[in-house]
Amino acid sequence: MSLTLAAGGRRRRNALPGFGLTLGITIFVLSVLIVIPLGGLVARAASLSPSQILSILSSPRVFSAFRLSFGLAFIAAVIDGFVGILVAWVLVRYHFPGKRILDSLVDLPFALPTAVAGITLTALYADDGWFGAPLAKLGLSVAFTPWGIFVALLFVGLPYAIRSCQPVLADLEREAEEAAVTLGAQPAQIFWRVILPQLFPALLTGIALAFARAAGEYGSVIFIAGNMPGISEIVPLLIVIRLEQFDYAGAALLATTMLVMSLVILLLLNLLSIWRSRQYV
Amino acid sequence: MSNHRRPGENRIVRFFLIAAAVVLLGAMLVAPLVLLLAEAFGKGVAAYFDSFSKPDTVSAIIQTLLIAAVVVPVNTVFGLAAAWCIAKFNFPGKTLLVSIIDLPISVSPVVAGLVFVLIFGSRGWLGPFFAAHGIKVIFAFPGMVIATLFVTIAFVARQLIPLMQQQGRDEEEAAMVLGAGGFRTFWYVTLPNIRWALVYGVLLCNARAMGEFGAVSVVSGHIRGQTMTMPLQVLALYQDYDSVGAFAVASLLAFLAVVTLVVRRVLEWRFRAELGYAGSL
Hints:
The complex is a heterodimer of chains A (281) and B (281).
Chain A: H1 19-46, H2 50-57, H3 60-93, H4 99-105, H5 108-111, H6 114-125, H7 132-137, H8 146-171, H9 174-182, H10 187-216, H11 219-224, H12 235-244, H13 248-280
Chain B: H1 11-40, H2 45-50, H3 55-88, H4 94-102, H5 109-120, H6 127-132, H7 141-152, H8 154-167, H9 170-177, H10 182-211, H11 214-220, H12 230-239, H13 243-270, H14 272-275
Helix pairs in contact in B: 1-13, 3-7, 3-8, 3-10, 5-7, 5-11, 7-11, 8-10, 9-10, 10-13, 12-13
């Protein structure tokens, strides 16, 4: 998420040219494409009166969509975190045939268009699909229910969790674990007390990124969700529906609410991971 | 004995962890790809290739290529400009600038489309002005380009910034001292240093531009044969119960994604040092 900035710049005069030009281009593009449009979004939402805002946000359909989008995104991101630790661990610590192919495949959900993910996951988890048929026999319908949304969100968030944990696991110092071994610690103790604390900030970052991605996900979800109001209707779909009814202000309000909630949760997770990393350094 | 090891070195534990990771990634990532091919070729090779002769599908492919042809060069120039001023210079507000570049990644694609409907839509701020001059932005090509630009703005810049920060500015300063002009310095010193990261960034930007669904869906209006892109066409064919057609188009997009990942692997393997530690995003 955050790119590391080279700290402690050298204080001598910079002789390189092009600063004004490139900064100008950057600021111009970002203003026109991102800052002004997003500002317009917030302004449009703010054009509603407080009572209108309250009545839109408290309607049962909107409320259940928010609960569904953010609740499922959160659960999916946490489970992605567990899978992320496991897969990152296996990819970093072990050697086995096919490892490099597996490692490359991890990025697939980044690169695969969401519509493609949507259509394949739907076919896979439909009641007559490869995974859907056995699950349906057990009485669990996945496609066209909230479970389907969960499966799609799990898919789109997976690489964030794995790729956040992988470099940290690779850079862990062997000595700390060996010291723990000589002090008589059990492997499980070493994992919980030595490895996990060091991994925790990266894990939280990965979960936060997976969550942010999953909460706003649209393409793959509308294929698999069934899109039933109040049951399997996500917030981005509600925004699209409002827009189709030319209710610009209502759509802007839902979008702004979603944006604010995402940013607040990302901020909290970042603060938590900074706090945790300070505790253990 | 087995207790006095680093965690995960027990052979049985190792076997189960590897097996769990392989099964999980197989089910979550490999199965969808295999199913995609099985469905696309489900009615034979002839039916697969036949689906690319439908005029609507051809038009969707052309639209997608045209959008990428505009978006990728613009985002490449932006990425180079942003990386140059951010990586080579220190100035107040740099962190903010980087955060704004990253912002679109955590914004829902639907919101990315929405902000431009609020500006250019029939009831948007500039909509009536453009309509009076006969320019269609929303439900037309320009809107689809702008929405795609928003979504993919960070991809080239994010590949370049960490790498160029890591490389510092000594080489460029040496070239300047030796009398090379700004452009020559960039062309002969900077560009060769960053070319593989640039190639990968451009490729990723291209894959995302061609595969964007949510943002384009909101601004396109889904006019068949006119404003459909490949991902939108996947949904349209799927809703028409043309399974082979939908999966055939999806297979092209999946192929593009897999090629992107393979090129990334090859570049990493051949030119690891020259790619820097650029993240997978």
